[in-house]
From TrEMBL:
The keyword Ribosomal protein does not apply. Residues 4-196 form the FAD-binding domain. It comes from Streptomyces antimycoticus. One of its GO terms (molecular function) is oxidoreductase activity, acting on paired donors, with incorporation or reduction of molecular oxygen, NAD(P)H as one donor, and incorporation of one atom of oxygen. Its cofactor is FAD. It holds the Pfam family FAD_binding_3. Residues 201-213 have a biased composition (Polar residues). This is FAD-binding domain-containing protein. Residues 217-227 have a biased composition (Pro residues). Residues 254-273 have a biased composition (Low complexity). Residues 190-234, 246-273 are annotated as: Disordered. It comes from the Bacteria.
């Protein structure tokens, strides 16, 4: 069987792309190497333009109802806040909503349109020829090959699709390591953020939980490796900054992340999506059509 499109990666980009393809009748299969969706909140923010794009398809309602609007935001951690209320938009705010919920809502949309997601199916290699492309896949029952007219890479920083397409990924070295913890605070802070000699910490609240995040202090030199022990990381984060007075509560997990992320060259990415030139397409973080 030949698919119209195979999307590698079931994150927000891959899910929304697959739903858009299904909307116009394109046969699409999404493969995702993870066995299940991550339970962590991960990214928390939907920006005004993202909400506008969702509204174009009548999808913004559930996001707005479940999220928490925040009318200001920081730029590079500077103390002066950006005021989103002056924007000419229906959504003059950023929306705090866990990525977990964002992905669930987008998956519901995809399934309503008849899309297929194959969990725990990892792309091993992608090949292309004059008529399309093939993806070697490792699944729970062994390896197999999917053939499609197009293969789209939405598989993040370690993209197999990008590597197979020969697209460089030089990026930049991370300068800061941050911690993100899903916790229920015993005494939620009155201020959304604190910046002191122990580092910077902030919290975002939504109807059922509060997330606390901490960035370490110091110069913009590479931070030390991230500990993967949730209890230790959350306890350390709480003890070192504002959270010591807030009570760190029940930690659901503290995945670490390095920032800023690397990304492919913009010119190479744009070229990879030109019709008639490549059968492998990359949708990078932060890309705009």
């Amino acid at each position: 069987m030949v698919n119209d499109v195979v999307v590698v990666g079931a994150g927000p980009v891959g899910l929304l792309l697959a739903a858009e393809l299904r909307l116009v009748g394109v046969d699409v299969t999404v493969i995702e190497r993870a066995a299940a969706r991550s339970p962590h909140s991960k990214a928390l923010t939907l920006h005004p333009r993202s909400l506008e794009v969702l509204a174009m398809r009548g999808l913004a309602g559930p996001f707005v109802r479940e999220g928490v609007p925040v009318p200001t935001g920081h730029y590079g951690g500077l103390p002066v806040r950006l005021d989103f209320s002056v924007l000419d938009t229906r959504f003059p705010y950023t929306l705090v909503l866990p990525q977990l919920r964002t992905e669930q809502l987008l998956e519901e949309r995809l399934r309503e349109l008849g899309g297929e997601i194959r969990w725990e199916h990892r792309a091993l290699q992608v090949r292309q020829d004059a008529d399309g492309a093939e993806v070697d896949v490792a699944g729970p029952d062994g390896t197999y090959t999917l053939r499609a007219a197009w293969v789209v890479g939405c598989d993040g920083a370690g993209s197999t699709v990008r590597s197979s397409a020969g697209i460089d990924f030089p990026g930049t070295r991370a300068t800061t390591t941050g911690f993100l913890g899903d916790v229920v605070l015993d005494a939620p802070p009155s201020a959304p953020s604190v910046d002191n000699e122990h580092g910077a910490s902030w919290s975002s609240r939504w109807p059922t939980d509060t997330t606390a995040s901490r960035a370490p202090p110091g110069s913009p030199s590479p931070s030390p490796p991230i500990s993967r022990s949730p209890s230790t990381s959350c306890a350390d984060m709480c003890a070192r900054s504002r959270a010591r007075t807030s009570g760190c509560g029940r930690p659901a997990g503290c995945p670490g992340s390095a920032t800023p992320p690397a990304r492919p060259p913009a010119t190479a990415t744009a070229a990879s999506c030109s019709p008639g030139t490549r059968r492998i397409c990359i949708c990078p973080w932060g890309a705009r059509a």
